[in-house]
Amino acid sequence: MSPALRPHRWPGFSAHDASVTYSAGQLETLVKQAAIEAGFDLAGIAPARLGDSRELRFFSDWVAAGRAGEMAYLESRDGQGRLKRAALEHVAPWARSVVVCALNYNTAHPRSTECHAPDRGWISRYAWGPADYHSVIMERLRRVEARLREEIGDPAIEMRCYVDTGPVVERVFAAYAGMGWIGKNTCLINQRVGSWLFLGVILTSLELAPDLPAADRCGSCTRCLDACPTQAFVAPRELDATRCISYLTIEKRGAIPEELRPGMGNHVFGCDICQDVCPWNRKAPASQAPEFQPRQERFHPALAWLGALSEEEFRTAFRGSPIRRARRSGLRRNAVVAMGNSGQRGSVPFLQQLARDPDPVVAEHAEWALKRCTEYRASSDQSRMIQTRY
């Protein structure tokens, strides 16, 4: 332990009482140092109780308005019927502080706005790597927790780690922890790193001094809102998840509303557009972490390959990947929609075959894609006739 972090002890007090044995600022410094040593890029501290937080109050209104769609887990409630995610004290009344850690997953590869091959689909950047980010982040959080327990030495101190799966709106606590601001695209944006960030939290009964919230630096920019193909943003920082491509390709089961299919473009799992166009990501540093470097089959994959995946091939290709959340049926459905949006004549024979697929969801979307290709062909033929005439 560095001398700068060595605890100060006074007679008559327990060596395990962190509020006494560590002078002001030392324990907070230890927390952040432990996070950086564990491999995180950013770390901050937020109070567990945010009072009448505008952001968490908005979350309750957002759920009530039906913006969560089929994501029932966001509507989980406690025994008193209160939304668990609306206030941390609903599920962890013992928590006094939230340690928020962030890891940059950006890699030095093209963005979705730069890749337009008609026979290939787009998988969101966060799912390219060989490992599921949940396990990658959790392993690092456990290391931070172990370091803190070792230094503090008090078994009575409570700590709990979460990566997406807990009743915590991570980006809200990250903003209160001074790690960035919530942008108009609802993502956490850090002035130095950008928004390609995985977030993990450690709830603790330790009373830690919180960091100051960061200033909002979106200004008058609306590029993310303007770029959304499905117009999923009702207003700045207000996303209708039921129209979001990420929701449609990952969380939505069964049929995708027909009016939203054209806007999905070539996206087969997730969407990066609102982050791709964000000016704060222009110079975002690239991570060298091997866990985030893309596997060949996950970066801009062939649509025909995705559409023909057997159950065994799906399990093998995406073992340990968050892509499994879409399930084989959903991934094939998404690939079919992308084929229809590409309008490629070469896809027609395969789509005709898929229109007879045993999976009724895939079959219905294949029929739609065939009509889409026919419309493209008619439009193209008409365009050529006009050019010939004039």
**Largest sheet entry:** 4 strands, antiparallel
According to DSSP, the number of beta strands is: 10
Radius of gyration, rounded? 24 Å
Oligomeric state: single chain
Mean pLDDT value: 89
The SSE order reads HHEHEEHEHEEEHEEHEHHHHHH
Overall structural class, as computed from helix and strand content, comes to alpha+beta
The helix tally amounts to: 13
Q: Would you kindly provide a written description of the structure presented here, covering whatever features stand out?
A:
This protein is 35% helix and 10% strand. The chain has a four-stranded antiparallel β-sheet with strand order 1-2-7-4, sandwiched between helices. A two-stranded parallel sheet has the order 3-10. It has a two-stranded antiparallel sheet with strand order 5-6. It has 390 residues and is α+β, with helices and mostly antiparallel strands. Helix 12 packs antiparallel against helix 13. Among the domains are: 3-108 and 130-204, no CATH class; 302-390, Alpha Horseshoe (Leucine-rich Repeat Variant). The termini are far apart.
In short:
With 390 residues, the chain is α+β, with helices and mostly antiparallel strands.
What are the SSEs and their pairings?
Blueprint: H1 18-21, H2 26-37, E1 42-47, H3 54-64, E2 97-104, E3 122-123, H4 133-152, E4 159-162, H5 170-176, E5 181-182, E6 188-189, E7 197-204, H6 223-227, E8 233-235, E9 238-239, H7 245-251, E10 267-269, H8 273-276, H9 303-307, H10 311-317, H11 327-342, H12 348-354, H13 360-389
Parallel strand pairs: 3-10
Antiparallel strand pairs: 1-2, 2-7, 4-7, 5-6, 8-9
